[in-house]
Amino acid sequence: MTTERDYFARLAAGTFSLQRCGDCQRAVFFPRIICPHCGGEHLKWTDTAGAGEVYSTTVVRRKPDAGGDYNVALIHLDEGVQLMSCVVGMPPAEVRIGMRVKARIEEERVVFALEAGQ
Q: Is the C-alpha dihedral spanning 71, 67, 7, 11 positive or negative?
């Protein structure tokens, strides 16, 4: 199984995982076979809490009959990796840089919502 297929199989099973390098101990995302930080080949899957913050955000404008506006955000996870996703559960234009968010899996993809208490 390729690392990408393994990642999506984990999502399908309801688990959001990152790889961690056994050589340099850094988290890796998007799944790879060689660590982009040190070149190590000892990558292992680890579950993530999925907590992080909005690093960058934009609103994609669409006509209402095309589904309306939606948010695209770059999320910086506490583990040190970044991924492109969206923040759900609030109007797209209200998403702000620095907001604390938490990952959840919807339709076999990772999306983010505000952390409890915000």
A: positive
pTM of the model: 0.88
Does residue 9 sit in helix, strand or coil?
helix
User: What average pLDDT score do residues 11-32 get?
Assistant: 94
What the block records as the tokens of 41 is 């080949």
Please enumerate in sequence order all residues whose Cβ is within 8 A of that of 39, keeping only pairs 6 or more positions apart, or say none. none
Question: pLDDT of 49-100, one tens digit each?
Answer: 999 999 999 999 988 888 889 999 999 999 999 999 999 999 999 999 999 9
> What are the backbone dihedrals phi and psi of residue 22, each rounded to the nearest 5 degrees, phi first?
-75, -15
For residues 38-73, one letter each, b for 16 or more C-beta atoms within 10 angstroms of the residue's C-beta and e for the rest, the string is: eebeebeeeebebebbbeebeeeeeeeeeeeeebeb
Calculate the CA 115 to chain-centre distance: 14
